[in-house]
TrEMBL record:
One of its GO terms (molecular function) is small GTPase binding. It comes from the Eukaryota. The lineage of its organism: Eukaryota, Sar, Stramenopiles, Ochrophyta, Bacillariophyta. Residues 129-483 form the Rab-GAP TBC domain. This is Rab-GAP TBC domain-containing protein. Residues 226-248 are annotated as: Disordered. Gene3D superfamilies: putative rabgap domain of human tbc1 domain family member 14 like domains, Ypt/Rab-GAP domain of gyp1p, domain 3.
């Protein structure tokens, strides 16, 4: 019998402990083969001095006995000998949530996932994407919680007298933005946000005879989760936590995010799909939604109340951005990105504020513990209290601030758009490498790729007239995890690849008309476009080399 330390106790007490342990079953034999039972040595334990001091005539030693570890399970043996097999399992699942849940299986899984979290999360997001009800929380976690970022505001103007960290910080920044030179431009763009599409963008329709489906046959055969990205039936409805008045609910489905995220705030709960009741009371509402489906590509029919509420929040966010980044100011394209964030995150932020689960970086809190003072308070009333505290605007601004700093999005909006124009030149060179025939066709007809690519990159592909929300969100999922712009170059190249048969049969006017309206919107389907984009190899080294070559020529 082995002891870990000598406690200086009498021999009688030690003998009593050994005799008490000898009466217990020899659990070490459980892990031994049948032929070794007679030769097995007594179990090894760790001597605890406090046992001897607290032991009386009746020794309760069994509670202090540390049984030897049992044999590892086959899963643990496989994981310890070949840990990479866990990557194959997670790749097969294609679910970022499963990556996080695997941390709770055992310590080996926790260690492996922590060491390879970025690669595992990247592959899972590329393959399967995110469930529409998980995406808002995932975006908040990635941008505000994952790196525990505490500093969100950065003074770029040395004469800025705003007191950082004050409770009324955003109010002061918003007031400063309204007094600045960007107020009129922001006001103009906000008034056009969440509205109808311009006439030249309303002609896109999904076609069943599209040539794109023949070119991208893998879009049908990919293993996709039902309802995530357009293939299969829509997901079951996520029951809303509260019922809004009919006057505040848009009947238009939110399949399209064109023109400043022209979508319904109610649709932001479930992303880009129509939510219908399954309890037998949905017939009339479903028929009205089906009727509105034909008009979805022409703009969403928001009520005046909902539209005014969203525009007020969007105006607040843009003014704070313009004041915070005074060297950048305001640039068209910010309104697209901020409006899309507001659409996706609004309801999740409200719910987190009510339940007290907001990220720690959020400074604004509701004025009181909502729901505690009045247990009978409805959730709609709680949401109204949350809106008064500007917590939605605060959170969306923090996410935009993360985009500007961590993800480098502010470089796209520098004065004179220098970085954005450089991206267009890099994209043009990439098209010459990947699609040489189409590049020669563009050059022959003197079509500058920047004429249409500038709007794509400036709005992160929200400018496209009939881009489905599911496609944009999946694209952004990959961007937020990878933290570079490769996915946008891939998507742009994939769009031109899928349009190539049409573009090669048109001259300058026909090509520009097609790229501005996308009459065949089938190619923008996520299970076609994203799948095609991920097949196009674009590396950081390739982009860096192209950029260096451009600077040498300049």
């Amino acid at each position: 019998m082995i002891f870990a330390q000598e406690a200086g106790d009498s021999t009688e007490i030690v003998r009593a402990i050994y005799e008490a342990l000898s009466t217990l079953p020899d659990v070490s034999l459980l892990s031994q083969p049948e032929t070794d039972k007679e030769e097995a040595s007594p179990p090894s334990i760790t001597f605890q001095p406090e046992i001897c001091r607290s032991t009386s005539s009746n020794l309760s030693i069994g509670k202090r006995y540390n049984a030897p570890c049992e044999q590892p399970s086959p899963f643990e043996i496989s994981l310890s000998t070949f840990p990479a097999f866990l990557s194959f399992v997670l790749d097969f699942l294609g679910d970022p949530v499963a990556v996080c849940r695997f941390k709770m299986v055992n310590r080996l899984c926790l260690k492996y996932v922590d060491e390879h979290e970025h690669v595992l999360m990247r592959d899972a997001v590329r393959l399967g994407g995110l469930q529409i009800n998980v995406r808002p929380s995932f975006w908040l976690w990635v941008t505000l919680e994952k790196d525990s970022r505490e500093s969100c505001h950065r003074k770029e103007d040395p004469d800025d007298n705003v007191i950082m960290g004050a409770r009324n910080e955003l109010t002061l920044l918003e007031r400063k933005g309204r007094e600045g030179k960007w107020n009129n431009v922001i006001h103009r763009d906000v008034l056009r946000s969440f509205g109808n599409l311009p006439p030249h963008k309303s002609g896109a329709r999904l076609r069943t005879d599209s040539i794109v489906r023949a070119l991208a046959t893998w879009g049908r055969s990919r293993i996709l989760k039902s309802g995530i990205r357009g293939s299969g039936d829509p997901p079951p409805p996520s029951h809303s936590f509260y019922e809004e008045d009919d006057d505040d609910v848009s009947l238009a489905p939110t399949d399209t995010v064109s023109d400043w995220g022209a979508v319904s705030p109610v649709g932001s709960v479930t992303g880009s799909f129509c939510s219908t009741r399954l309890d037998g009371r949905h017939t009339k509402k479903f028929e009205r939604q089906a009727e509105a489906q034909e008009l979805a590509l022409g703009g969403s029919a928001l009520s005046d109340i909902a539209k005014a509420r969203l525009q007020e929040k969007l105006s607040f966010i843009l003014h704070v951005l313009a004041a915070t980044y005074s060297n950048v100011g305001y640039c068209q394209g910010m309104d697209y990105v901020a409006a899309h964030l507001l659409r996706i995150l609004e309801d999740t932020i409200r719910w987190k504020a009510v339940t007290g689960n907001l990220p720690s970086v959020i400074q604004f809190e509701p004025s009181s513990m909502i729901g505690h003072d009045n247990p009978d308070q409805s959730l709609s009333d709680m949401y109204a209290e949350v809106d008064k505290s500007s917590v939605v605007e605060e959170t969306c601004f923090r996410v935009m601030d993360s985009f500007f700093t961590t993800y480098g999005l502010r470089h796209f909006y520098w004065p004179e758009l220098r970085c954005l124009k450089t991206c267009c030149l890099v994209f043009e060179k990439l098209v010459q490498i990947k699609l040489p025939v189409l590049a020669d066709h563009f050059e022959h007809h003197e079509l500058n790729i920047g004429l249409f690519a500038l709007g794509w990159f400036q709005t992160l592909f929200l400018y496209l007239p009939s881009m489905p929300a599911a496609t944009v969100c999946h694209m952004w999922d990959i961007w937020l995890v990878e933290r570079n712009f490769k996915i946008f170059f891939r998507v742009g190249t994939a769009i031109l690849f899928l349009c190539q048969p049409v573009l090669l049969n048109n001259e300058l006017e026909g090509m520009m008309g097609y790229l501005n309206t996308f009459p065949d919107a089938t190619l923008l389907s996520p299970d076609i476009l994203i799948a095609c984009a991920l097949q196009i190899k674009v590396t950081n080294r390739m982009l860096t080399q192209i950029e260096c070559d451009l600077y040498q020529k300049l």
